[in-house]
Batch of 3 targets.
Target 1
Amino acid sequence: MSASARGRAASSGGPAAPAAPPDAGLPVPRTARYAWYGLLLVLGLLVGTAGALVQAAWLPGGLLLALLAATGLFYGGLRATGTQAGVVCAGAGWLLAVVLLGFGRPEGDGVFGGGVGELLFLFGGMGIAVMCATLPRLPRPPR
């Protein structure tokens, strides 16, 4: 087959190269992804600490505010990284902060006094993290 015949065959419906999926986006370098994961871990520590303090201070509204902040962090981690690992990093930081604050000190001082609000905060936050980790990846909007 001559070169011009091959060119006509390729342009007239021959096999084409596979196109990239529409939601592929730009490739993210590995170091940038690890930086996102580290940032989400630190944000999880901060949101867990702030949530533990706020939920006990203003019980019905503070609990709702703390769980909304955790939801925003977990879903934001999913959307920022595009993987469930973003939710896991944010959730690990959040859980680490909540567990460490729950231990208390030998003198008896602790952030959590024991009660329904603390349990709702702990189990609600873990449930929200699981829900965000199991969400399907949504296609990104066209640019």
Target 2
Amino acid sequence: MHRRAAAVLVAACCLMAAGCAGSSRTDDDYRRKAANTAEAAASALGTARVATSAAGRGNATSAYLSVVLGEAEKDLEGAEQAFTSRQPPSEKADRVRDEVSEALTDAADALAAARIAARRGDASAWGSHTGELTRAKQRLEQLEERLS
């Protein structure tokens, strides 16, 4: 019984440790991780943008759009959580963190607004959401390019 409890405790500790990202040792490493985060977030927004565009043209239902946007939100949140759990190694890296975090927050806001409109069946708003998602995606792509 004690061995089983110990094994469960060890497994739980391993899972918790895997969920925590450590610090980046250098500014260069942190910048690369920020660029990867921006790329992953831009990808999630790209999926959402294609879906809202298709729905705006009448080629997708609001139910389908809602599911796609919900999944894109999960992907974006995962990228954001992985990044924000990292410890910036310097004040210079703090500025990178702030810039990427702000872009991620704006992207999450645009995605949430699109998902809400989809769940409400507000087809008239899908075109404007496509534009918002496009702008947020472009901002993340520019960040990714600059930080790479």
Target 3
Amino acid sequence: MERTRTPVVSGWFTEADGEGAGAGGTEGGFRLLGTRCSACTAVFFPREDAYCRNPHCPGDGRLAEVPLSPRGRVWSYTDGRYRPPAPYVSDPDVPWEPYTLVAVELEAEGMVVLGQAADGVTVADLAVGMEVEVVGGVLNEDADTGTVWTTWRFRPTGGAA
């Protein structure tokens, strides 16, 4: 059966140049997508398409899609030692494997974005201030429909904290 890559949330990221990439995501083309207000230059993620959420915005701005910085610095991190609720899929008959959550500061945008760490990255591999990059990842694969639900992950770049 042919597999179809489908973003878990449409419009939140792009997998440009990602066709044929492995489960670890794409090289160089993966970007989170936000929106920027033309009136106050505030950037939002998740994206905002209806109105500027900045309470200090003078108004009358247009919201435009912008790719967010591909790299940031670890602001905080922790491990998840419980089975998460939907849309995450986990088989209750399989032992639970903890996952790592990373809060990443995108300095240029003035925001912190939360996401899971890339496969194989644990809390022991992270430090506050460490440089990480956003990459594509797989949230779930539906064997019945051939759908591969994609999402974003963060992985260390090797840059010093």
